[in-house]
Write a structure and sequence with these properties.
The chain has about 425 residues and is mostly helical. It contains 20 helices and no strands. The longest helix has about 40 residues.
Length: about 425
């Protein structure tokens, strides 16, 4: 009972609700959008380049100091800085979803659609920064792992809704209706933002130059003996998910799967197992080292994605459907656990007085690598074709495992 008691606190429900809204835009601007573009016969090269539109996620670190300097009238005095930024971003992201749903992805609209995606990702990044700052400050030491697990569960549910559920809605009533429903889903965060009691640790007002504001948090990280290993791990740990993100749904459509089939398994069953994995991670990470969790999840995730290799040869065969269902369930379960463990890695390296800035810096490093990998995935498909592409992803696994081992050894030496 003691292992689940922390989940029963209102603050955990609040984290779950607003992290759902944080996770919603990611797939709606990547995988789901890529599926829509593929349906309209947009080339894989252009679809891959849409990964560059999401590079604003990598700009979080540059946005954080600016957010600290800008005071939002009326809201900030009542809600505090972080919650006021979250609340402001919700209607702006909703408006962006409505515009994306309205625009037909024709050749002449591609530049406009690209620009709108950049703007939505920018607003989403601001909301992510504010959420991370508020959540980290909100949690007590013994609630930390559970808070990260709730954040991961909510974020993953947002991704599943923006992925599988959005595809189902598009299948039954068109893309404009789907994006309209996704916009309405953003409203779920508002009660949590307004009702959760504000907890804010004010910092002493110290006059700093803009250069110092940006450099001090980074230099604090770089002074650590394990800094290079940390940055390399943050940049590359999600390499497989990044390379697959824009590619999987167009591949499944080409293999003969329908939007409904993809949506049901990615949205409903996938969502259940992602939630299970995220909440289970909160319990696991209080008992074993989260680096060990990352190690195991990396092996399992790379292995389950080998299922795509026979799918390249089976096409729309009934056995191919069972393989896809297996991959969808297990991969979502693994990603639920690994994302929570990865969140603990990021949060553990974000230390006062630079909590928000260091969290933003590390997630910016992760996002930059992720979006660059996404942007080249279409070109890799063009050069390698699907079969070689899936084998290539698996062959990179030993490099990641060596990096994990090195990080664990270096950080162990620095703490001894």
């Amino acid at each position: 009972m003691n292992t689940i008691k922390p989940y029963l606190k209102f603050k955990m429900l609040a984290v779950l609700m607003w992290s759902f809204a944080c996770g919603l835009p990611l797939l709606l601007t990547t995988t789901t959008l890529a599926t829509r573009l593929a349906q309209n016969n947009i080339s894989m090269e252009i679809i891959g380049l849409f990964g560059l539109a999401t590079l604003a996620y990598a700009g979080k670190y540059f946005l954080t100091p600016l957010m600290e300097l800008i005071s939002i009238p009326f809201l900030q005095s009542r809600l505090g800085r972080a919650r006021s930024w979250m609340l402001l971003m919700i209607p702006l992201i909703m408006l962006g979803f409505e515009v994306i749903g309205y625009l037909a992805p024709t050749a002449e609209n591609i530049p406009i659609l690209f620009a709108i995606v950049v703007i939505v990702v920018l607003f989403s990044s601001i909301m992510d920064i504010a959420e991370a700052e508020y959540r980290i400050e909100l949690m007590e030491a013994d609630e930390f792992a559970y808070g990260v697990a709730c954040y991961t569960a909510g974020y993953r549910l947002g991704m599943i809704t923006g992925g599988g559920i959005a595809l189902l809605l598009a299948y039954y009533d068109g893309w404009q209706f789907s994006y309209h429903c996704m916009a309405l889903c953003m409203l779920i965060a508002i009660p949590a933002i307004l009702l959760q009691k504000h907890k804010y640790y004010p910092q002493a007002a110290i006059k700093k130059s803009l250069l110092s504001i940006y450099l001090d948090p980074v230099m604090d990280i770089m002074k650590r003996p394990y800094a290079l290993s940390l940055l390399a791990l943050v940049a590359t740990y999600n390499y497989a998910e990044s390379l697959l993100l824009l590619i999987v749904n167009p591949f499944l459509l080409q293999a003969g799967f329908t939007l409904a089939e993809i949506g049901i398994w990615q949205g409903s069953f996938g969502g259940v197992f992602a939630l299970m994995g995220s909440l289970f991670a909160g319990i696991i990470n209080t008992r074993i080292n989260f680096i060990r969790t990352l190690d195991i999840c990396a092996i399992l995730y790379a292995s389950i994605n080998l299922v795509f290799i026979p799918l390249t040869m089976l096409g729309n065969h009934s056995f191919a459907h069972y393989l896809f269902y297996l991959q969808s369930i297990i991969s979502n379960l693994i990603l639920g656990v690994s994302t929570a463990a990865f969140g603990m890695l990021i949060a553990s390296q974000s230390q006062r007085p630079y909590t928000a800035s260091q969290n933003a810096f590390l997630t910016s490093v992760m996002a930059a690598a992720k979006m660059l990998l996404m942007s080249v995935s279409g070109l890799l498909i063009y050069q390698l074709h699907y079969l070689s592409f899936f084998i290539f992803i698996f062959m990179l696994l030993p490099c990641l495992l060596l990096l994990l081992k090195r990080y664990q050894r270096v950080i162990g030496n620095s703490l001894s």
